[in-house]
Amino acid sequence: MTQDLPVIPDSEYSGKEPGPWNANHGNLLLCFVALIFLVGGGVLFYKQNLSFSAPRFPDSDNIDAVFDDTVGASGTAIIRILGAANDNGTMKIAIYGAESTFERPADAVFASVEPIAGGQVYIPVPLTALPEKIAIAVFHDENDDSVLNKNAIGFPSERYGFSRNVRGLMGPPTWAQTVIPRPRNDATIEIFVR
Question: Cβ contacts of residue 143 below 8 Å, gap of 6+?
Fold first, then answer.
């Protein structure tokens, strides 16, 4: 007859309580993931709400777009804006002529407020008003409050667009991203608002 040998417990675990990692590793991993989520959410919130400066456009009281007979002799370009959500409100446009004045409506070389028809706007711009390089910013002001409205998390709730149809990753695009050469006579520049 064989005699059963006594089972000797593993010396690493004998008489010891499990450490915090062995006892709570699931909770610690969950806390680590939650911490990463909170830090990432905080960075995104900061970038979208606290460091984002919305494009500023002139209000209708400050716009003086007067065409005289000399404009026809020097030529005009057409800016065609597409993608308006509806025909409510107006389309605000500002054309800037230098990086130092970009997104400062008071310093725009050309500004206009136009009605929307069929989700589109056509704006004739006198070429004499434009410098060699320009950047265009537009937005669909659906409620006519002259402000690019934002939703609860800080994203624009009204459609907007820039020349070259660029979008900024964290806020509005820069002058370098939107700058284009002055258009030629009878040229059409298309900008999509989204």
Answer: 88, 89, 149
| Contact criterion met (CB below 8 Å) for 142 and 84 | no
Return the structure tokens found at 180: 């284009």
The pLDDT, as a whole number, for residue 145 is 92
Give the CA distances from residue 9 to residues 6, 12, 13, 48, in Å, rounded to whole numbers and listed in that order: 9, 9, 8, 58
Indicate the residue type of 161: G
The CATH number that domain 60-192 falls under is: 2.60.40
pLDDT of residue 51: 58
Q: Which residues of the chain have pLDDT under 50?
A: 65-73
Domain ranges of the chain: 60-192
Prediction pTM value = 0.63
Structural tokens at position 40: 């990432």
